[in-house]
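Write out a record, fold above all:
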Amino acid sequence: MATLIVVLIIITVVMVFSVQNAIPVTISFLFWKFDASLAIVLFLGVLAGVAIGVSASSLFKMKLSKKKTNFY
């Protein structure tokens, strides 16, 4: 039950943040330029960070479990 409450609070904070930061910004990367909402840009940045963190964590756990199974 506590997890559900925490998830609902996080969703509410993200919704309020998105509404308050809906201004368009110009993103420049190498040769590309495009306009996007600031909230979307920040959300995609956080999502990329989470994906990289989860990938690195799972690779580390796989390496650690492989080390435990090799008794040689």
